[in-house]
């Protein structure tokens, strides 16, 4: 047995980097030769064999199994024994802080519980009009249901055209589950008591809330099942192995469940609001980020196995090289997500904190559990394409990405100009983007509450189903007189009173979501502006305030995200030019994806607008996650440039990372597209924008534009840092 041990003052490592060394033996090579009874024909720098003590402990022969299985066991026990955190939801959870409609809702909390939420029962004639006999039956049914208010002949009001009738039924306030149960019981009773020739439906605020909750019944399980299936399929295609894909999928799947527990427990501990969509988005993010990190690690590990016989030594190098990029990426994403804590909307703050916890969990499982688990298995885990010592590495193979790099290198200016032109063309749609979905556009599949509201608007004043609420501690009669004189008000009705607070229900003349209705809200607010503690709330007012809150969030949070990403790249690369170029490419990707998505939404999909939260969430995920792939590419380029110069180093980095980053990007895009399985428009829109953006970033920007820019700038790309052979 012979071990090649160099004791000269300096040699070159296999990457070509010249390293200074003192004399002595390389203990890792010696141990490898002893344990594997094999020849080591590669020169190793002693510095390459001094990994961080924690890294050595994670993948050591005696301790790897602890790091592989103990976190997995702890996660499973946490799922079984602890479960997800719980918190009582409040009407304020989704309202922007300190705006008029939010203050109205806060004041409403002092009112008696009765009538704090209502359902509107709609009866429509299947043919003709509602006759007198049927109206008497409806009044009896309405009284039994506890309907409030009264028409000339009872609690039921009949439309002028005689084809429809309504009654307002109070629904006891409480949690979303309580409201859903009440509405379900109401609908069941309506089905049992509806007279022949009539159809009964429930709409109004309580029914809309119940239908929104119903959207998420079993939705997270469906989302998890579809996400896991998509990830499994893409992993099989990527690795072309019937075995290997199971390991990362198992690790990321358990990480996802542990992240859901950890995140919701943290939110509950700090009393931060979250809603039904939070865990769904968290799951998608953990699967996407965790699988990306796993792909990067496994790709580097496979490459190192072609150089080193001992798999523990191969994983030592792979983990050390991967950890820098993954930690830089995860830190950037976490910092970006934490900027959502500055949002004025409580559930948005909860989403940011939950997803930040999820990314930390994903990075931990990818850098601790996965390498420890992989190293326990032999090379056979890669079957049938088992890496063998002496095979060519990715950077040296005549691969597709090697050929792409060669073509870009011949005409970098042409490729850069063409890519920028394409991104600019797609970005044109960004100038037409408008935000603010009407209530009937919030669902991909129209629920009963929305269809009933649309039918009701054909026979009754537009705002009758969901009146605007004016809440005050002033004299209610004085407030009523002021409101009645406001333009756009159809009628004012007294509401509940108690504890010095009174509520007025105001029916607007304009259609919900129309400019006329918005002007009516503005007129009411102007009319009551001089009255003490008088606020305007309700769905229409809340929609106006949501737009104002979203605009404020974009102004504050978007520049902060950019600043944090730029600062992270400056620290990581110790360069000025490269971070500026990378951030510019990410901004171009965002603009192009928003423009392309807008044409898709308003064209084939038929939407009139984006939800208020889409621009912010899409920007956050695209910038934070999009910069990941640039980090993966440029950290490898920096490594390769040390031995081969900046030009060849970038091309070698593209050849080495092209396949894995493209696979990771396609996988991440597919995972976010899975949000479309939830029948809520905002999630489908967010998922679509991110899917388009990630595909643009991985298939075009990172493949063509970034390498072309680096080749054009040469050494200036890394300025003021010096890189080169």
Automatic annotation (TrEMBL):
GO terms for cellular component: plasma membrane. It comes from the Bacteria. The keyword Cell membrane applies. It is found in: Cell membrane. The keyword Membrane applies. Residues 258-376, 564-711 form the SSD domain. InterPro entries: MMPL_dom, Mycobact_MmpL, SSD. Keywords: Cell membrane, Membrane, Transmembrane, Transmembrane helix. Belongs to the resistance-nodulation-cell division (RND) (TC 2.A.6) family. MmpL subfamily. This is MMPL family transporter. It comes from Nocardioides marmotae. The lineage of its organism: Bacteria, Bacillati, Actinomycetota, Actinomycetes, Propionibacteriales.
């Amino acid at each position: 047995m012979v071990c090649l041990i160099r004791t000269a003052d300096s040699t070159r490592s296999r990457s070509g980097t010249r390293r200074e060394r003192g004399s002595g033996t390389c203990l890792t090579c010696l141990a490898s030769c002893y344990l594997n009874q094999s020849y080591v024909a590669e020169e190793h720098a002693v510095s390459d064999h001094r990994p961080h003590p924690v890294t050595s402990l994670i993948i050591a022969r005696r301790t790897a199994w602890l790091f592989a299985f103990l976190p997995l066991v702890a996660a499973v026990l946490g799922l079984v024994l602890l479960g997800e955190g719980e918190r009582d939801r409040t009407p304020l959870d989704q309202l922007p802080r300190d705006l008029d409609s939010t203050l109205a809702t806060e004041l409403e909390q002092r009112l008696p519980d009765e009538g704090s939420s209502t359902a509107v029962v709609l009866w429509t004639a299947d043919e003709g009009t509602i006759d007198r006999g049927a109206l008497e039956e409806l009044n009896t049914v309405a009284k039994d249901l506890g309907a409030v208010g009264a028409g000339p002949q009872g609690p039921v009001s009949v439309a002028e055209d005689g084809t429809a009738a309504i009654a307002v039924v109070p629904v006891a306030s409480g949690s979303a589950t309580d409201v859903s149960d009440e509405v379900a019981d109401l609908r069941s009773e309506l089905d049992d008591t509806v007279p022949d020739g009539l159809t009964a439906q429930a709409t109004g605020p309580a029914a809309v809330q119940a239908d929104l909750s119903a959207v998420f019944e079993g939705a997270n399980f469906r989302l998890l099942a579809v996400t896991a299936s998509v990830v499994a399929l893409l992993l099989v295609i990527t690795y072309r192995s019937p075995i290997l894909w199971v390991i990362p999928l198992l690790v990321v799947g358990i990480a996802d469940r542990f992240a859901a527990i950890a995140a919701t427990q943290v939110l509950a501990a700090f009393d931060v609001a979250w809603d039904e969509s939070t865990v769904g988005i968290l799951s998608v993010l953990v699967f996407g980020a965790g699988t990306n990190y796993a792909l990067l690690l496994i790709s580097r590990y496979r490459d190192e196995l072609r150089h080193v016989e001992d798999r523990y030594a191969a994983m030592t190098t792979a983990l050390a090289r991967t950890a820098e990029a993954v930690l830089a990426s995860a830190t950037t994403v976490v910092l970006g997500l934490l900027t959502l804590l500055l949002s004025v909307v409580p559930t948005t703050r909860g989403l940011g904190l939950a997803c930040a916890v999820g990314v930390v969990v994903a990075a931990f499982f990818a850098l601790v559990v996965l390498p420890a688990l992989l190293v326990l298995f032999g090379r056979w885990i890669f079957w049938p394409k088992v890496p063998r010592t002496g095979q060519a590495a990715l950077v040296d193979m005549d691969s597709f990405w090697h050929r792409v790099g060669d073509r870009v290198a011949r005409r970098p200016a042409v490729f850069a100009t063409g890519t920028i032109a394409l991104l600019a063309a797609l970005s044109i749609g960004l100038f037409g983007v408008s935000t603010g979905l009407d209530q009937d556009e919030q669902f991909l599949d129209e629920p009963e509450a929305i269809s009933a509201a649309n039918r009701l608007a054909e026979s009754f004043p537009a705002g009758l189903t969901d009146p605007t609420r004016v809440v005050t501690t002033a004299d209610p009669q004085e407030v009523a007189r002021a409101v009645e004189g406001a333009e756009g008000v159809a009628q004012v009705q007294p509401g509940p009173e108690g504890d010095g607070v009174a509520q007025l229900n105001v029916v607007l003349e304009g259609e919900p979501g129309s400019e006329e209705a918005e002007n009516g809200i503005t007129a009411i607010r102007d009319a009551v502006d001089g009255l003490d503690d008088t606020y305007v709330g309700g769905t229409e007012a809340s929609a106006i305030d949501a737009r104002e809150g979203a605009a404020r969030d974009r102004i504050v949070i978007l520049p902060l995200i950019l600043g944090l990403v730029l600062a992270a790249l400056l620290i990581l690369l110790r360069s000025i030019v490269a971070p500026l170029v990378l951030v510019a490419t990410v901004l171009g990707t965002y603009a192009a994806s928003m423009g392309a998505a807008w044409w898709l939404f308003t064209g084939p999909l038929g939407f009139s607008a984006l939800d208020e939260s889409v621009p912010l969430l899409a920007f956050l995920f695209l910038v934070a996650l999009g910069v990941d792939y640039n980090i993966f590419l440029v950290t490898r380029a920096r490594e390769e440039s040390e031995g081969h110069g900046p030009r060849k180093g970038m091309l070698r980095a593209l050849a080495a990372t092209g396949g894995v980053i493209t696979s990771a990007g396609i996988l991440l895009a597919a995972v976010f597209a899975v949000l479309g399985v939830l029948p809520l428009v905002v999630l489908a829109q967010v998922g679509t924008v991110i899917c388009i953006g990630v595909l643009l970033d991985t298939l075009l920007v990172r493949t063509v534009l970034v390498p072309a820019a680096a080749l054009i700038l040469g050494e200036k790309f890394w300025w003021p840092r010096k890189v080169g052979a």
